[in-house]
Every structure is written in C-alpha cells, then in structure tokens.
Amino acid sequence: MKITVRNGNVESALRVLKRKTKESLIDLRSKEHYEKPSAKRNRMKQAAKVREKKRIRDQGLKCKSPKK
User: Fold this and answer.
1) How far apart are CA 10 and CA 3, in angstroms?
2) What is the rounded CA–CA span in Å between residue 33 and residue 20?
3) pLDDT for res 52
C-alpha cells in the first residue's frame, strides 16, 4: 500500500491511510466465514441507517421518524 503526501499535507495523507486500512480490515473480516446474503444485506442496511443519522446530526437537521 502506498500513500503519497501532497504539498506537505500529512494530516490528509493520514486520513487516506486510515480509510484504506479500515477498508482492507473489513474485507479480511468478511472473508473469515461465510455470511448469508440476507445477513449481509441487513448489515449493510443498518450501516446505511447509522451513516444517515450521523449525516443528519452533523447538518443539524431534525431527524424524521420512518413510517411503519
């Protein structure tokens, strides 16, 4: 893995490095054992919900409750 530092911006390079290592760890973890497609789909949906709540919180918007 190779990360380039542009214009002496080490903080940006560290962020890129952390992102790449996090993605590679997720790939390794997912290959430890077989995961049913439905379980993978549910995990991805849950992660999307968490990301959406974080995005809304960071923007300072009011969270809408989902319709059931």
Assistant:
1) 10
2) 22
3) 93
Fill in the DSSP letter of residue 9: -
pTM (two decimals): 0.46
Sequence-ordered list of residues with C-beta below 8 angstroms from that of 53, at least 6 positions apart, any chain = 63
| DSSP three-state, residue 8 | coil
Q: What's the average pLDDT block by block, 10 residues per block, for the chain (68 residues)?
A: 83 86 75 85 93 89 62
Structure tokens at 49: 């919900």
Distance of alpha carbon 41 from alpha carbon 19, whole angstroms:
22
**Confidence at residue 23, expressed as pLDDT on a 0 to 100 scale:** 75
Extract the tokens encoding 59. Answer: 């923007």
